[in-house]
Design a protein that fits this description.
With 261 residues, this protein is mainly α. It has helices at 20-50, 55-82, 85-108, 114-138, 148-177, 179-182, 184-198, 215-228, 230-258. α1 (20-50) packs antiparallel against α7 and α3 packs antiparallel against α4. Mean pLDDT is 81; it is low at 1-11.
Length: 261
């Protein structure tokens, strides 16, 4: 494949945008982040305004969305090493799209209930962690090693913009179409992400399981590696703390903002 080949003149730094696979990857991931921000804003609104969810029910809804990443993140990373990363990303996108597509359909049939939203939150959380674990680990196969730092900075900047745009788009769609039909925007974003990932042509060579080694053994090795690297250990603790704080915030914001005093 020539997707990683750059034909920049000698002495100049190669351009990221010459990597076709990286452009496809970035487009798909940005679409997914935008869509996820839509559903993160819309689902609590749907629960509170349309289904009259109580404080406890909103808390359970948030918990079921956050629990799969906490329980499956390590397994998802190990699976991404053993199997095709592109397939894992595509499967995660399609599962999330299918789960979310049932919400506007159920609402149109007047069959939507809080239990369905909780199942959707759990399924979306599980599918999302499978996708994200593979998406993180596939990047080194898309660009030259010298471009990894630059590509990560581009990804971080674009994702921040996409997350903000998704929240604003979710609010606009909710005002125009109602919260249930606004989720169609997230369904479309997952389909775009899956299509872009399927177009990536870089070789995807899974490592495969070593003979006689189990999944939990590889997970344990990964945990020990992170523990002994002070930089990775610090980043892991910071991200875990931030995620926990955001989860607490997301549990209550819809109730305080949407329920009259």
């Amino acid at each position: 494949m020539t997707s990683r080949t750059d034909h920049s003149p000698p002495g100049t730094q190669p351009s990221l945008w010459r990597h076709r696979d990286f452009r496809r990857y970035l487009t798909g991931q940005a679409a997914g982040v935008t869509g996820s921000s839509i559903s993160a804003m819309v689902i609590p609104v749907l629960a509170v305004l349309e289904l009259d969810a109580t404080t406890a029910e909103v808390a359970w809804l948030t918990l079921l969305g956050q629990l799969p990443p906490a329980l499956l993140a390590l397994h998802a990373g190990a699976l991404a090493d053993r199997h095709s990363k592109r397939k894992q990303m595509i499967i995660g996108d399609l599962v999330s799209a299918t789960a979310l597509a049932g919400v506007p359909v159920a609402a149109a049939l007047d069959r939507l209930c809080l239990a369905q939203l909780m199942v959707v939150a759990a399924v979306q959380g599980a599918a999302g962690v499978l996708h994200d674990a593979a998406a993180i680990s596939i990047l080194p196969s898309l660009v030259d090693r010298s471009l990894i730092q630059r590509s990560n900075s581009r990804i971080g900047g674009l994702f921040a913009v996409a997350a903000t745009a998704g929240s604003n788009l979710g609010a606009a769609l909710t005002a125009l179409l109602g919260p249930a039909r606004a989720l169609v925007g997230d369904v479309i974003s997952y389909l775009i992400s899956a299509w872009c990932t399927s177009r990536i042509q870089a070789p995807d060579s899974p490592r495969g399981a070593a003979e006689g080694r189990r999944l939990h053994t590889e997970i344990g090795e990964g945990l020990r590696y992170v523990h002994h690297d002070h930089r990775l250990r610090t980043l892991t603790l910071v991200n875990a703390t931030t995620s926990a704080a955001l989860a607490l915030l997301n549990t209550l914001w819809a109730l305080y903002l949407l329920v009259p005093a």
